[in-house]
């Protein structure tokens, strides 16, 4: 692997609670099933995946001074992530995410509590401007407040630092629209791609058109994920579609974050976009075969073993 400065990852860190029933959900009554609690949050997930791939990583986020926050920080440190700059706040609860799946493992409902992200302020980022200026790359999720995003892009522009963004949700993706020309990479799903481009995305052909549209708006690498139908991607030099890797699906949570991290890994190690995207698909496939949000056995060797050639 190439040696490079740390990737700085900025965004949400949460405790995730995920429930999956054994049989079809029935409204108004409880269903027998499986409930799991683990560390999550899009930015935190990306950071952990990068750490497991040996990428030097610094996490900028906020957690409460509570058991959940301490667990998130401790787990990140165990994976080699620099947490020295994490805000640990009294009087705030650590971010939380709750998802209810159906018996097939498809999400039925979800709720998130991200009020603590308001502590990632423009002033906080300004104090961390030295980290941003020297980063190999900055990866963000769209949980960042709009004022904070404005400051972030102002700071990184001065030093030509590349920024990769996960739109996170359809509603939050709107926060990224003013900065598409500043993004090096963006990884929306179909619905998020529609929100970013205004184009309908119902087929692979639509998704490829949306990816190319994002490139025409200034994005260097656009990847539109399509779940079990794979993905479409585009850059100024190439574009294409790739099928999903066939595997047993245990839990879909975190697949997109794993894909983002593995593509970043590939690009930092000077792979071309096509091979980097294949690494991303491999990471997503490994993740959905695990109950955990981040595959605990993820490694560079395992990633290449899973990769579509």
Task: Summarize the topology.
Blueprint: E1 7-10, E2 14-21, E3 33-40, H1 42-52, E4 57-60, E5 62-64, H2 67-78, E6 87-89, E7 95-101, E8 107-113, H3 122-127, H4 129-134, E9 137-141, H5 146-157, E10 163-166, H6 170-173, E11 185-186, H7 190-197, H8 204-216, E12 221-225, E13 231-234, E14 239-242, H9 255-268, H10 273-288, H11 300-306
Molecular structure report:
The chain is an alpha/beta fold and 309 residues long. Helix content is 35%, strand content 22%. The chain has helices at residues 42-52, 67-78, 122-127, 129-134, 146-157, 170-173, 190-197, 204-216, 255-268, 273-288, 300-306; strands spanning 7-10, 14-21, 33-40, 57-60, 62-64, 87-89, 95-101, 107-113, 137-141, 163-166, 185-186, 221-225, 231-234, 239-242. The strands form three sheets. Strands 4-1-9-10-11-12-13-14 form an eight-stranded mixed beta sheet, with helices on both faces. The chain is globular and about 55 Å long. The chain starts with 6 loop residues before the first strand and ends with a helix. The mean pLDDT is 94.
DSSP strand (E) fraction?
15-25%
Q: Extract low-pLDDT stretches.
A: none
Give the H and E element order: EEEHEEHEEEHHEHEHEHHEEEHHH
Q: Describe the sheet with the most strands.
A: 8 strands, mixed
Strand order in space, largest sheet: 4-1-9-10-11-12-13-14
Report the end-to-end length measured between terminal Cα atoms.
19 Å
**Overall body shape:** globular
The number of helices is: 11
Q: Give the beta-strand count.
A: 14
Radius of gyration: 18 Å
Overall mean pLDDT stands at: 94
Name the structural class.
Answer: alpha/beta
- What fraction, in percent, of the residue positions are helical? 25-40%
